[in-house]
Write a structure and sequence with these properties.
By secondary structure, the chain is α+β, with helices and mostly antiparallel strands. Helix content is 50%, strand content 13%. Strands 2, 3, 7, 8, 9, 10, 13, 16, 17, 18 and 19 form an 11-stranded mixed β-sheet that branches. Strands 1-12-11 form a 3-stranded antiparallel β-sheet. Strands 4-5-6 form a 3-stranded antiparallel β-sheet, with no helix packed on it. α27 (765-786) packs parallel to α29 (807-825). The structure holds adenosine-5'-triphosphate. Adenosine-5'-triphosphate is lined by residues 56-57, 59, 134, 136-142, 237, 239-241, 277-278, 346. Residues 48-370 form the Kinesin motor domain. GO terms for molecular function: ATP binding; microtubule binding; microtubule motor activity.
Length: 947
């Protein structure tokens, strides 16, 4: 009845489970060692092998020989040797095992008390093995056949009683005969191979694993195995088993209510019934021929088994020779692995087998010391695994939450203090990160300001000094090519703002990505950075920059250290962080003090240790003294000019001829030197004629800005050039006209100039408007020719809309562009060699700028906004690299003012650091309208105002 119900249930189970095909299966192979990966979620606990001894009764042959029984079970677990023979005195008097069974114990009892628990663990997903070990004819087969049947009956009964789970049973059987593995369910006697599966261990290849349909089916299979097993007659046993037999029942089960759910997991385990061949002595069995050979193999494999057990009983140190026999190889998991194991050692009580019995007891004694670690084997579907892991995570999270609650709640405790410290630490880290940003920003700001001021007040006071040939006093006042190049291709930004710097950084990053030649990279750097590179003495600017760098570094280090401290959970972190903050504050203060405007210190010009030409910038604060020093050495060739010139002389110069005006664009007008006073290579003229023509000289009735400036500068003796042996020095002198309008020019004159210009414009607004348009178109044209950055163009275009006061800016921009164009055109002139190189490389810079804009487009605008812009700019939405296409279209149709305006608006939107209407005109390097901005000490205020 049980089997009938079970049969029906298992059929259903079988089809149901297999139909999913999601779980691992051992079908088609016989696994000698369950894979560790099959191990489920219940970690195995170490458990000793269960060892029982069974004494059989004296058999007829033994009785016939009047043999006596020397063994007696004095308790359920103690066996004594009761022989009084002298040679037995060395044996222990008593042996204790988990269970001992005397001759009167039936197999049922043996099973119940020595094997049942182990056997039934298979239905709970735990592997199990039941051995019968003993000498030949001791009753192993007799015991195991009974134990197997009882166990299977109990398993079937369990299945019947546990309807909530569905089971699949599979059966396989092998024998190891003369070290050959044979499938007992197959009629093919060919030996099977053992395979080493990295995941599942030793596997018998091509072994039949028969799904059990019902009890009768199982009985049939048993019958097949019995018929197939090698049996032979020996002197001791008429039906002696000549092979080791291993019957395996695999039980898989899953909960019925999980079948339709995600949480589908299957328990799977195997129960091995191992009936070993008996150890035998040839002298006793009188084996010869085949039997002798069989006995030899049997003994050898049993010897290996004994060795393995003995080694295992002493711990798992050293090599365990599992692989020395197929028996131990296959049973490796049962011998100390993932399985519960019970060994029933059978003994003959006869005195004639005392020695063999003693060996059996020795084996049993070792076996009981061997531990296994059985686990519940759960095979899960991926879904079930995920589900389970999620549950585990939830559980752990809950646990953490509970711990956190218990930690923060309640009375004041050390844990509470730690939490408060951690919170405080987080705040400090946050604060320091802000400070780092602020310091970095201040550093960039200060450095940029220094750049602009140095460029304006000391624009022409740049030295090139060659250490070996020129003394400091003899050093000529020449401008740095680097500076000029910077002027041309970098957006002049005497009053930078944060976003502008970020944009510059972005462009520099692009340059780095593009592997710009080093020279170009350095070109984009400012003058101050040239100084330390040239190994000159420390200047305020370099000092400040260094200080700021160090500050940022200190701050970063602080953050890192803080994080480390957090990691180690230091309780001193609070104090350390406070100290760090104080240090940072001090550094900020020193940074402020190190400003040349607050310290009042100037450049200390020292000789370069390098033999290379170097460039030095000198703030105007120190310039007077330097000038005085240099006046003493005028005899060197370059005469100081017009040192006594005054503003009053300017009108005379205005009245000079056109030729002289042209010269005014040359360095002579600034420095007071004539062309003839310069080395040929030092003179860089501009095509004033062209300029006059093209801009429709509008200073017919008013003072030319440049002339005025040149005159003032001359009168003010702002610059002196000393004649130098140019060929020896290889230095050049190039002065850019736009540079001749310094911020440091007398502010009254600047205001006058603007007033003058404004007056002129105000007198004829229509005329000014036309001029503005002409200027602007010319500027746009020159921007393109000179490859001026689009950002500069855009801001300039949007900023100067025709206000009369814009006149000055347009004028200067125009002059600057002509100068760039003119100097670039002198391709064979070594004086401008660097500039030409820069000029030719400027299209690359423009390309990089377009790439940057394309990137900004993707970064700043939403997909929808981008698509609208693409459509507006006639870029197909299904084309590739639309952003680059768009960037490539910017500032291309230069005669179309609408295009130019839209390009400008888009560029500004993408850069987005200052709204054009709020952008200061000082952004373009001039400040005629707010002289106070140039006052020393006010630079920080100016910066702040611009931000
Ligand atoms: N406990 C027992 N009670 C009664 N008879 C037993 C008992 N144990 C074994 N026998 C009998 O002893 C004989 C030998 O037993 P069995 O074949 O099981 O020994 P074995 O250890 O398997 O020997 P082998 O190693 O040679 O196969 C059998 O005839 C069996 O019926």
């Amino acid at each position: 009845m049980l089997l009938g119900k079970t049969t029906k249930k298992m059929s259903v189970v079988s089809s149901t489970v297999r139909g999913r095909g999601e779980r691992r299966s051992v079908l088609g192979s016989w696994v000698g060692e369950e894979s560790a990966s099959m191990a489920g979620d219940v970690a195995g606990e170490s458990e000793k092998i269960h060892v029982a001894i069974r004494l059989r009764p004296l058999n007829d042959k033994e009785k016939a020989k009047n043999d006596v029984s020397d063994w007696e079970c004095i308790s359920s677990n103690t066996l004594i040797f009761k022989s009084s023979m002298p040679d037995r005195s060395m044996l222990p008097a008593a042996f204790t095992f988990d269970r001992v069974f005397g001759p009167d114990s039936g197999t049922k009892q043996v099973y119940e008390e020595a094997a049942k628990e182990v056997a039934l663990s298979v239905v709970t997903g735990v592997n199990a093995s039941i051995f019968a070990y003993g000498q030949t004819s001791s009753g192993k087969t007799y015991t195991m056949s009974g134990v197997t049947k009882y166990a299977l009956a109990d398993i079937f009964d369990y299945i019947y009683k546990n309807q909530e789970r569905e089971f699949v049973l599979k059966f396989s059987a092998i024998e190891i005969y003369n070290e050959a593995v044979r499938d007992l369910l197959s009629s093919d006697p060919s030996p099977l191979r053992l395979l080493d599966d990295p995941e599942r261990g030793t596997v018998v290849d091509k072994l039949i694993e028969e799904p059990i349909e019902d009890w009768n089916h199982l009985q049939e299979l048993f019958s097949i195995c019995e018929a197939q097993r090698h049996i032979g007659e020996t002197a001791l046993n008429e039906f002696s088993s000549r092979s080791h037999q291993i019957l395996r029942l695999t039980v898989e089960s899953c909960a019925r209510d999980n079948l339709g759910a995600e949480n589908l997991s299957t328990l799977t385990a195997s129960l091995n019934f191992i009936d070993l061949a008996g150890s035998e002595r040839a002298s006793q069995t009188w084996s010869t021929g085949t039997r002798l050979k069989e006995g030899s193999h049997i003994n050898r494999s049993l010897l290996t088994l004994g060795t393995v057990i003995r080694k295992l009983s002493k711990g798992r140190n050293g090599h365990i020779p599992y692989r020395e026999s197929k028996l131990t190889r296959i049973l490796q998991n049962s011998l100390g692995g993932n399985a519960k194991t019970a060994i029933i050692c059978t003994m003959s009580p006869a005195r004639c087998h005392a020695e063999q019995s003693r060996n059996t007891l020795g084996f049993a004694s070792c076996a009981k010391e061997v531990s296994t670690s059985a686990q519940v084997n759960v095979v899960m579907t991926d879904k079930a695994l995920v589900k389970q892991l999620q549950r585990e995570i939830s559980r752990l999270e809950g646990q953490l939450e509970r711990q956190a609650k218990s930690s923060f709640g309640g009375t004041v405790s050390k844990t509470n203090d730690t939490a408060a410290l951690l919170r405080e630490k987080d705040l400090l880290i946050e604060q320091m990160e802000k400070e780092i940003k602020e310091l970095t920003w201040q550093r960039d700001l200060a450095q940029s300001h220094i750049d602009s001021l140095l460029k304006s007040v000391g624009e022409d006071r740049l030295f090139r000094v060659e250490e070996n040939s020129v003394s400091e006093a003899d050093a000529g006042l020449v401008r740095s090519n680097t500076e000029r190049e910077y002027d041309q291709f970098s957006m002049p930004s005497p009053v930078p703002n944060r976003q502008l710097l970020e944009t510059q950084a972005s462009l520099e990053a692009y340059s780095l990505q593009e592997e710009i030649p080093q020279r170009n990279t350095s070109e984009s750097e400012n003058i101050c950075r040239d100084v330390p590179c040239a190994e000159m003495g420390e200047t305020p600017s370099t000092k400040m920059a260094t200080t700021a760098d160090e500050t940022a570094e200190v701050a970063l280090t602080t953050i890192e250290e803080t994080k480390e401290l957090c990691d180690v959970g230091s309780y001193d972190i609070h104090e350390i962080l406070k100290r760090r903050v104080q240090e940072l504050q001090k550094t900020i203060e020193s940074l402020n003090q190190s400003s040349p405007f607050s310290s009042g210190k100037g450049v200390s010009l020292t000789r370069s240790k390098s033999k290379k030409v170097v460039v030095v910038t000198i703030p105007s604060a120190l310039w007077s003294k330097k000038e005085e020093d240099e006046e003493d050495s005028e005899e060197d060739g370059c005469n100081a000019r017009d040192s006594s010139a005054t503003d009053e002389e300017i009108p005379e110069r205005r009245g000079n001829s056109k030729e002289e005006d042209n010269k005014g664009l040359k360095m002579e007008h600034e420095s007071g030197m004539k062309d003839s006073d310069y080395p040929e290579s030092c003179v860089v003229g501009t095509k004033e004629d062209e300029i006059i023509k093209e801009i429709d000289v509008h200073f017919d009735d008013t003072t030319s800005v440049l002339d005025s400036v040149a005159g003032w500068k001359k009168g003010k003796k702002m610059m002196k050039h000393q004649k130098q042996p140019t060929r020896e020095l290889g230095v050049i002198s190039v002065v850019e006209p736009s540079r001749r309008i310094p911020e440091a020019m007398p502010t009254t004159r600047a205001r006058d100039l603007v007033s003058e210009t404004n007056r002129s414009s105000n007198q004829s607004p229509a005329n000014w408007s036309q001029k503005f348009e002409r200027y602007r178109r010319k500027i746009i044209e020159l921007w393109a020719k000179c490859n001026i950055p689009l950002v500069h163009r855009s801001y300039f275009f949007l900023l100067f809309k025709g206000d009369p006061s814009d006149n000055v800016y347009l004028e200067v921009e125009l002059r600057r562009l002509y100068f760039i164009k003119d100097t670039a055109a002198r391709g064979n002139n070594p004086v401008v060699d660097t500039q030409i190189a820069t000029y030719t490389s400027s299209p690359k810079l423009l390309n990089r700028e377009r790439m940057m804009l394309a990137k900004q487009l993707q970064k700043k605008l939403s997909r929808k906004e981008r698509e609208e812009i693409y459509l507006k700019w006639n870029i197909e939405l299904d084309t590739k690299q639309r952003a680059l296409q768009l960037a490539g279209k910017l500032w291309t149709d230069l005669r179309n003012m609408r295009h130019v305006r839209e390009s400008s608006i888009l560029v500004v939107k993408l850069i987005g650091f200052v709204e054009p209407q709020y952008a200061p005109k000082e952004l373009f390097g001039l400040n005629f309208l707010n002289p106070s901005a140039n006052q020393k000490g006010s630079w920080r205020d100016n910066m702040s105002a611009l931000l």
